[in-house]
Amino acid sequence: MRLAIRHPKDFWAGLIFTASGLAFGILAQDYEFGTTTRMGPAYFPTVLAILLVIIGLATTIRAFVIDGPPLQGFALKAGLLVLGPIVLFGLVLRGAGLAAALLALVMISAYASGRFRWIVAIPLAIGLTAFALLVFVMGLGLPIPVIGRWFN
Fold it and tell me: Which of 78, 83, 84 is nearest to 116 (CA)?
């Protein structure tokens, strides 16, 4: 019996999940794990990494069992418009502040959609930014600058 990939989308998705889980698991090992009752900084990333690897392996195995449509290609532009703003967010968060970094993240990521419209994206960006500020800065008290030093 010859193994053949019968569902290419599941195969590639499974590989991405597995690789992400392994990367997170490896990076989390530099921190203290702790216990279930006293979780260390590595506890949550390690548990998440294990779940990602399990989901990835299950999805990859499924690709050899269930038939699916052929892969049409990779949406490179859309992928870059989603992943690029995440990197940009990390680079500008301290200098621009949470509000500006989130507005940029949401607006650029929304542009990846084939149905992008400014009239929808702007209120979405403002609403998500306000929600994140309320939850993370006001609610949880995280020491993240709302307005960064670039705008002071």
Answer: 78
